[in-house]
Amino acid sequence: MLQRELTREQAVAAGEQVLQGMESAIIERGYSYFSDGVVFNTRVENNRILCSDVQGTQVYHVQLDLEDVQDSTCTCPYTRLCKHIAATFFQMYSVFENPRHFLSRAQQPRRVSFTPAMLIPSYRPVASDLHGNEAAPVSSPLTAASSVSDWWAFFESWTRNLLSAMESYRASSEMFSSYQNVQSVAAGWPRERAQLFHIHANLFHLQKLQQYVKSYRQSNWYPDLAQTAERLLEQLEGAIYFADRQALWADHRPALAETVTIIQKWKENDTSSLYWVYAYRMIWWSLLTDPDWIKQEVAELEQAMQTPNAPAAESEKYRLLRAHFSVMENEDALALQVWKPIRRLPLSFYLPYMKAFVRNQEWQRFLFWTEALTELIGSAEAAQYRLVIAIWQEAMKQVGRSDECGAMLKNFLPSSYSEYALHLYEEKQFKQWVDLQMSYQVPLADISSVHLKEIEDADPSLLYPYYVREINRLIRERNRPAYKEAIKLLKKARATYAKAEQESDWERFVDKLSAKHNRLRAFQEELRRGNLNL
Q: Which of 90, 117, 96, 76 is nearest to 34 (CA)?
């Protein structure tokens, strides 16, 4: 059916957009969904919209815009091009081309282009989040008129057996199930009130998770628990971002004032984990923006910082929190002066600010932070690095410095290895390119033959160090197969030396090599068989 309604050209063009705008991990997960056969009811509308249903945790409805893939939509909570959209793409692409070949391309290093969607939290509340889970409604005495303190009292009652259940069963599943189910309490409430209830349910469960770790795990954050905390923070970011904050301030100020009282107490937490710090900053940055409230919080932090004989960890905690308000006061250098010496702060600690600057089109401010955090960016995990570098390239473009990007990628090594290598090659800076490959111990066998030929045509001598290193490495393996591979490389090296009219240098090199390894009988035999011994 799709073969009659669409063309191969449409499939290929859509694929190029997918490669440009979708993360490799999402493409891989989409391929798994496609392979599992969970994409159904696929049909074409208006000659450009590919619709489908995809079975995930529930059935999601996808509309893939083949002309502008970025405009595609899915009913799942993910705000960007998601795995369900990717699965729908593979369902269509497989009609015209081999999807495995496309997956292989997607797994190769590639440039990521900036899109405004990168700045939107990856999670957005959907109707079922804000108005309850009809399959498992939670009975409660709360109404839309109940106070925030009533909410928290109910949360405590609702979760009275949660920690023991987490200890007995899978902790992360019990925690997240409790968080999702309790949201049904706000079913039928005014939307803004339900949004704020959602935020508080998240804050409560994040605090409960930290209590569980401290009480039951002796402050050990197992990967499963850390992932749960990260999911809660991701959903908190989305809940705040998509909330109608203007309506909250207009109609629910007393509830926000209660929120201040709750979040102020979080200063008493320790910093054995930073998850509560992330939530604390989100709330103050985007929700509790009243100048008087901020002034009071800053005063309390500064007073705590001056406590005599306070433990070093306590002093560091208050300085860390106070620095957040320095950023709100546009005192970025002061904040970074506090944070950068704290080596355990990862790049993710700084990302909320950097994304906020770009949303406000404060491009120079973003570039100031990238310069200050160069080392962290260069060692960040792949997804975070790609996000920052895509925004950085856009920021450089906005300030008229795009032509500097290629050379400056060197500053972000090792994360920028692939992009920097591509820049050097495209600019025909072959010596620097070879040096980069050798410094990162890239095997000669992994280098494209096309690349090697072009470099050899330009300047054969640039490859000599590479050949020498590889030949010596193979000889050190001390086995016959490795010696045979070394002989093959020696023959390639001989051709390269001959092309450069430096046969005498090659002869001296082989002579020294033979003399150095004269006790390796098998190697000497391979030299003779290859007619390379002198």
A: 90
